[in-house]
Amino acid sequence: MDKFTKLTGVAAPMPMINVDTDMIIPKQFLKTIQRSGLGKNLFDEMRYDREGNEVADFVLNKPAYRQAQILVTGENFGCGSSREHAPWALLDFGIRCVIAPSFADIFYNNCFKNGILPIVLPQEQVDLLMDDAERGANAVVTVDLETLTISGPDGGQIPFDLDPFRRHCLLNGLDDIGLTMEKVADIDTFEADYANRAPWLRAG
Q: I need a surface site. Which of 10, 118, 169, 189 has the fewest CB within 10 A?
C-alpha cells in the first residue's frame, strides 16, 4: 500500500448526501477481484448516459476535474452495501482523499485498508472547502497527514482529527498484511519454538 504523507491536488466538489456504494461502483462491475481497472466505471451511472457517452456536466467529466485527487462531498458518503470495490474504484481513478461531514462505517474502514484518507469535518468547514473546490483547475488543496491540516487555495488552514493508529498506518503504508509483516520475526520465533515443543507436527 502506498504511503500517505502530504497530498496536493485538485479537489472536486460533489455536494450530494447519501452517496451509496452502488453509485460509487455499480453492482455489474463487481465480478472482478482485481483492484485495478475499476476507475473507468467510478460513478458510472452518473458519468455516462445509456449509450455510454460521457455526461458533460458531471463533475469528474469536466476538464478541470479529470485529474482530481480529492473529493469534497456530503454526509453519509459510502452508505449501502459493504463492497470494498468502492474504495478500489476511487483509488484507481486517482482519488486519495475524501472529505465529508460523515461516512458509513464499513466504507470508512475500507478506505484506510486501501490507502485512502477519509476526513470528517463539521458541515461549515466542508462548505468552505466545497466553495474552494468550485474554482475548477484553481481548486488546489493540500492535505498534510503529518500536521493534520488542510490548506486551501488561499492559504487558509483547517485542522482535522484522526485516530493515531490509523494515521500511523497511512503514513507508513501499512494495510492488514503490512501490519502482520511487522511482526514476522516474532511469528518465526513462535513457529520455531512450537515446532520444537510439538515435533510430531513435522512428521510425515
A: 189
Spatial distance between the Cα atoms of 33 and 87, rounded to a whole number of angstroms: 13
Same domain, 150 and 196: no
The domain that contains 12 carries what CATH number?
A: 3.20.19.10
pTM for the structure as a whole? 0.88
Q: What is the pLDDT of residue 73?
A: 98
Residue 143 sits in the same domain as residue 179: no
What phi and psi, each to the nearest 5 degrees, are found at residue 66? Answer: -65, -25
Backbone angles phi, psi at 54, to 5 degrees: -65, 140
Question: Length of the chain in residues, anyone?
Answer: 204
C-alpha pair distances (Å), 156 with each of 7, 123, 149: 16, 17, 10
Run of H or E including 100: strand 97-100
Task: Give the C-alpha separation, 204 to 202, whole Å.
Answer: 7
Which pLDDT tens digit goes with each residue over 68-80? 999 999 999 999 9
Domain containing residue 197:
174-204
Q: Which carries the bigger pLDDT value, residue 1 or residue 108?
A: 108
C-alpha cell at position 71: 473529493
Residues facing residue 11 across a β-bridge: 70
pLDDT at 204 over 60: no
